[in-house]
Automatic annotation (TrEMBL):
Residues 10-154 form the Phosphotyrosine protein phosphatase I domain. It catalyses: a phosphate monoester + H2O = an alcohol + phosphate; O-phospho-L-tyrosyl-[protein] + H2O = L-tyrosyl-[protein] + phosphate. GO terms for molecular function: acid phosphatase activity; non-membrane spanning protein tyrosine phosphatase activity. CDD domains: LMWPTP. The lineage of its organism: Eukaryota, Metazoa, Chordata, Craniata, Vertebrata. Its EC number is 3.1.3.2, 3.1.3.48. It comes from Centropus bengalensis. This is Low molecular weight phosphotyrosine protein phosphatase. PANTHER family: LOW MOLECULAR WEIGHT PHOSPHOTYROSINE PROTEIN PHOSPHATASE, LOW MOLECULAR WEIGHT PROTEIN TYROSINE PHOSPHATASE. The gene is Acp1.
């Protein structure tokens, strides 16, 4: 294999949690000079927001931490299950949807997990901040940062 691990981070609409997680993960990988080892993406379970930029509050939160993203929302495809090594999602309903979709794909090689299983602080679920405040987006950022760091340490 090319030695590239592929990770895709998934939430229902791909405009709040998963783009934050993707941007955080990408920055960690870049900071650790592991860009040639990881291909990172994020996607949605649903097709509500395909082609849309992340929520302005998500962009704002990332910018506060010096991170830019040019991500556009996309939906999980069959190929994702066959090419990605890990598909990390945000909550139980994502997990159910992904497991259901993956069961219809032959040669599913992706390990489908909750990103929160990697959290040293044991916050298993990364709650949707969409109806919340800036503070909720910051919480998502901090959770994603902890989880992505721990995930990276475990997996390389």
């Amino acid at each position: 294999s090319s030695g590239i691990s592929l990770s895709s981070l998934v939430s229902p609409g791909n405009i709040c949690r998963s783009p934050i997680a993707e941007a955080v993960f990408r920055k960690l990988v870049t900071d650790e000079r592991l860009e040639n080892k990881w291909m990172t993406d994020s996607a949605a379970v649903s097709d509500w927001n395909v082609g849309r930029s992340p929520d302005p509050r998500a962009l704002n939160c990332l910018r506060n931490h010096g991170i830019e993203t040019a991500h556009r929302a996309r939906q999980v495809t069959k190929d994702d299950f066959q090419t990605f090594d890990y598909i990390l999602c945000m909550d139980e309903s994502n997990l159910r949807d992904l497991n259901r979709k993956s069961s219809q794909v032959k040669d599913c090689k992706a390990k489908i997990e909750l990103l929160g299983t990697y959290d040293p602080q044991k916050q298993l679920i990364i709650e949707d901040p969409y109806y919340g405040s800036e503070k909720d987006f910051e919480t998502v950022y901090q959770q994603c940062l902890r989880c992505c760091k721990a995930f990276l340490e475990k997996s390389h």
